[in-house]
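Worked example

This section walks through a single chain of length 312. The input is the sequence exactly as stored; nothing has been trimmed or padded.
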Amino acid sequence: MKKMGWGVIALIVLILTGCQGTQSEEKTLIIAEQYGLAYAPLAVMQAKNFVEEIDPDLTIEWAKAGNTTVIREMMLAGKVDIGFMGIPPFLIARDKGMEWEIFMGLSQAPIGLVSSNPRIQSLEDIQATDRVALPQPGSIQHILLAIAAERELGDAARFDQQLVTMKHPDGMSAMLAGQELQLHFTSPPFIFMELDEPNTHLVLTGTEAMGGPFTFIIGAAPKRVLDEKADSLAVLNQALQKAMAFMRDEPEETISILSESYQLEPEVLKSYLENPELIYTDEIEGLETFIDFMDRNGYLENEIAADEVVWN
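Given that input, the structure is written out below as tokens.
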């Protein structure tokens, strides 16, 4: 039997090292998330190491994003595998040619339009000079406002020129100051914090705008990730299911975990989590309603079918 030369050995080592590198890459998921109680299962999953319990070889890396535009750009650059966001911005990116799909729901939430101006009690009271803060045009807040404007005022685009893009904390501060900004369409915990302040009131709830319940946050990933990392996504889904069950079964420890994550007093956080409209579930509701409205009003240019954008 002939001895292998150093060149052959080096080639074998190089091949094996390359295989290990590929395997390691496949066992990593990079997740982009935004801030808010709607994303709480992600924080619980991370704190309780549920992914590691299910698959010790799978590594989760985290990226914080201010809005869905940032998530989309990170995905297109290959820096992020998974993003959690609202349905409308997902649909807009899909409409523009981004090959990604929804692989799970994460939460329903009591979002709404809050004002500190007593003059504004309904959508009819919003004047052309009033400004509405929300995360970005095309966000779920924007589309819900447009749905309500179409139904109540006959014009879906009525407020499209009055939108101000702001992160939730900045929008809350500006609205409460009550000088240049009169309205803020926001989500937990900011909506709870705003309504705890004196002289604020709810102008419109997300459920009123939609006409029923809807999924607030979904998980989406590029087709490439869905195909290449299906096993890892299954682990993530299982880990998030464990996190949701843990939140239901262990409320005290959940509050302890989240009060640190969100820098909220435990009693305050407890009152927020007890809101019946804050629901953590992987079910997806309202997708067809969003598609129909956005297509009918020109927010989408191409025909999209609900069953084509949900990963099976």
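What to look for: Residues 1-25 have pLDDT under 50 and may be disordered.
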